[in-house]
Specification:
- The chain has 157 residues and is α+β, with helices and mostly antiparallel strands.
- The protein has one domain.
- Helices cover 20% and strands 35% of the residues.
- The protein is built from 3 helices and 7 strands.
- The chain has a 7-stranded antiparallel beta sheet, with helices on one face.
- The radius of gyration is 15 Å and the shape is globular.
- The protein starts with 6 loop residues before the first strand and ends with a strand.
Length: 157
């Protein structure tokens, strides 16, 4: 059985309604979101000389993800939120220093310069809260000015 093609939803940080509706429709293990911000292209640097394949750092402009229905080895369900970024290591500490700490009850799964930051969010967390934290984290990790406009690619299994 073939997966349906991804759906693209554009939204702004001022109006999360369209994307949170998609989040609500994605029951655990039925799909995921990939979130990409729009940014001021004039403030972006020249492309890196090495390809991402050879680099131990993530993308210059962060790419975020939201995946419901993940499970720990002990079978505890959580929603995974992640940010691939070029900000280096110890990003959780950096976010805390920038006034954007991890919410209480959320747990770091991975914090790696190449793979990015992955956080386990309790399933009971409200979609707008998880999405808001994720978008703000990407903004804090981005060295160029974001416009506030985003594109969510909705993947369904």
């Amino acid at each position: 059985m073939r997966r349906p093609p991804p759906e693209v939803v554009t939204f702004s940080v001022a109006d999360l309604g369209a994307v949170t509706a998609q989040m609500a429709a994605l029951v655990p293990r039925s799909g995921w979101l990939v979130l990409q911000p729009a940014f001021d292209a004039e403030s972006a640097p020249a492309p890196r000389r090495t390809s991402g394949f050879f680099s131990s750092r993530g993308p210059y402009v962060p790419v975020a993800s939201w995946v419901p229905g993940e499970r720990t080895r002990q079978g505890v369900e959580y929603t995974a939120v992640g940010v691939q970024h070029g900000a280096g290591s110890a990003v959780v500490d950096l976010l805390g220093e920038r006034g954007h700490p991890l919410p209480t009850g959320w747990e770091v799964i991975d914090d790696h310069p190449g793979r990015g930051l992955v956080v386990a969010v309790p399933p009971a967390a409200a979609h707008p809260d998880a999405l808001g934290w994720l978008l703000d984290a990407a903004d804090h990790l981005c060295p160029v000015q974001l416009t506030g406009e985003w594109r969510a690619t909705v993947h369904r299994r």
